[in-house]
Amino acid sequence: MIDRRLRHHLTTWLGQWPAGQPLQVVGSTRREEPGWDGQLHPAIGVGSPEHSVLSVAPQWTTAVRELAALGCVRLMADLAATVGFPERDTYQAVFRWTIRPAELPDIGVWLPAEHPTVPPWLRVFGGEVLVVSDPDTGAYLAGLGVKRHDPHGHELSVGTAPAARGKGLARRLVAQAARRVLDDGAVPTYLHSTANAASARVAEAAGLPDRGWISFGVAEPSR
């Protein structure tokens, strides 16, 4: 049984949850609308250990269902071209979520994304971002942005300056942001590649366990 906020998020974001079969391709007009970054996200999938939902624009539903019937390897190889974005890559990531973040002390300060001390990579998130600065020099050390997919689900994205790594800043930022997302009535989610051991450690320490869930689909446009 999953948390109601996660269920509402997946239903809103994908167009359906749960799936009625191991891999269910659903047509959703959400894939025709700009996402958190103002860009189109033409194919987004989430899978639990029991089943998966792959959300595409309604016009591509039949073609993607036919592609999925050929197997996962073929699906991931040809998905981007099938939904009209042959220039993009596909991705598969670990999908994490929590309703009980770790009780780590707050460390960051929420700032407007356009604040002059916010680095360029964080500004694209808009709204407020979470930043840690050196108390002596004011230099940026680490930061976290929020992908506000819908009112029910907010994805956390964290980064640490190379010189500040290994100090536990990222895990504290993720836990702090997760608490705020929950206070706002949404569920915090966190994605990372299966090969990113450092990101996996951050998530585990922040209270976002690996439940065997994945996210997959067409990757976001390069910046």
What does this structure look like?
It is built from 6 helices and 10 strands. The protein is of the alpha+beta class and 223 residues long. The protein has 2 domains: 4-96, no CATH class; 109-207, Aminopeptidase (3-Layer(aba) Sandwich), CATH 3.40.630. It has a 10-stranded mixed β-sheet. A hairpin with a 2-residue loop joins strand 7 (140-150) and strand 8. The longest helix has 15 residues, at 169-183. It is globular. The chain starts with a helix and ends in a 5-residue tail after the last strand. The model has no long low-confidence stretch (mean pLDDT 96).
- Please compute the radius of gyration using only Cα atoms: 18 Å
pLDDT < 50 stretches: none
Total discrete domains: 2
Helix % is 25-40%
The strand count comes to: 10
**Per the principal axes of the C-alpha atoms, what is the gross shape?**
globular
CATH H level of the largest domain: which superfamily?
Answer: Gcn5-related N-acetyltransferase (GNAT)
Strand content: 25-35%
The helix count comes to 6
- CATH-derived topology of the largest domain: Aminopeptidase
Distance between the termini: 37 Å
Mean pLDDT: 96
CATH arch. level architecture of the largest domain = 3-Layer(aba) Sandwich
CATH level 1 name of the largest domain = Alpha Beta
Largest beta sheet, briefly?
10 strands, mixed
Strand arrangement in the largest pleated sheet: 1-3-2-10-4-9-8-7-6-5
Structural category: alpha+beta
Secondary-structure element sequence? HEEEHHEEHEEEHEHE
